[in-house]
Amino acid sequence: RRTLIDLYKKIGYINVEVELDKDKAETGRLFYVIDEGPRVRVKAVKFKGNQVFSDAVLTKVVTLKVAKWGFFPSYFSEDALDESIDLLQEFLHKRGYLGYEVSSQREFNEAGDHVVVTFEVSEGPAYTIKEILFKGNERTDVNSLSAGMTLAVGQIYDLDMADRNAERMRD
Questions:
Q1: Which of the listed residues 12, 66, 121, 122 has the most CB atoms within 10 Å of its CB?
Q2: Contact in structure between 2 and 20 (CB atoms under 8 Å)
Q3: pLDDT value at position 42?
Q4: Where are the alpha helices (DSSP H) in 30-77?
């Protein structure tokens, strides 16, 4: 039963109900009664509170999308919503916005077949690199380690760049 519900929810039937017909189960047959409810389409994806990154930029980050040209409908699922929040958080973190806050609100129409999702985004301040320290470098001097680094004091923290610098030091 739980597997059927999860399957339906992933493809947009978020109000699905699945019940086992107990009378037929007594005869040795499993018979599930399914009430799919409406399949929920994403009518709009909005952003609120974002100051640094535009709605257009953030729209490219999330997995929840609106139907393109009226074709290829986009159906709502909690999994896609959670993934979109995770992607927004990762996007902000990688760009030095470590004090971010991301949440969402869903607004369903009366029929329950369309939803408007609003992501509330607060980037917080961009963190800048105050100091670059090395620990455990007993055989290699600091100048050798910092040669070729792409991050510098005063720059906005960039996770990808920090990872690349660490990789270069490992090589």
A1: 121
A2: no
A3: 95
A4: 55-61
